[in-house]
Amino acid sequence: MSIRWTYAFADRAAARFSRAREFWTAVTDTRASEPRGEHGEFVTLLPSGNTAGAGTDPCVKLQAVTSGEPGAHLDLAVDDVDAFVASAVRTGAEVHAGHDGWAVLRSPAGQLFCAVPWHGESVRPPVVRGSRLDQICLDVPPSAHDAEVAFWTRLLDGWESRPGSLPEFHVITPPPGLPVRVLVQRLDEERPASAHLDLACADIPATRARHEELGAVHVAGHPHWTVLRDPAGGLYCLTGRDPETGGLPPRTGGIAR
Q1: Rounded CA gap, 174 and 182, in Å?
Q2: How far is CA 69 from CA 66, 91, 105, in A?
Q3: Which residues of 35-46 are buried (b: 16+ CB within 10 A; e: fewer)?
Q4: Model pTM score
Q5: Residue pLDDT, tens place only, 182-231
């Protein structure tokens, strides 16, 4: 089943949702849509009307949740949701919840993701201040890692699936034009699967400084990526990848997520 568009979804606690909205609209140079959903729990981050963002389509959304830890998930926009769900189940997914026109599914490792209708989105937003939110990182326990890589490789048919720059990373890159790629990361301990957002950054220290000005907190530093916590409590990473291509900078050939 052809995937027409991808969305990165940040799931944040309802009690701190307004703070999450303020932070993520600022760092992505977007504005929040009107809330929707039964409890007003969903917003889409709409590209700003400036010259760079004019005519582009959104690819980031926020969800207010009332239980569980802050995290992230992937939305896959398709022509035929029912047909995609049936294909995903044959591939190894389970239906977690069905809704009118869309569905929540669960991967073999337990990671939730959604199948939603495609509404014609086709132009990804621009790089903002040297960074771009372009990746969902699936954090998977060692016992489930290989099966999870195999599942996403089959589900995302036509995407490039390859080992990453370190043994614990596996990258699944979409065809040109789709805005969000998938990184499957093998954890070093057995714990439930989770997910977080990654940004590709031309200059990690400069991006970190900007995010900290907006309320993010530094959690951990690594040679080629930095872990931050947003003001709503969600972990995410700034990674040393090319914001235009999502790949490793050709000048270094180094390690990045």
Answers
A1: 8
A2: 9, 27, 18
A3: eeeeeebbbbbb
A4: 0.93
A5: 999 999 999 999 999 999 999 999 999 999 999 999 999 888 899 999 99
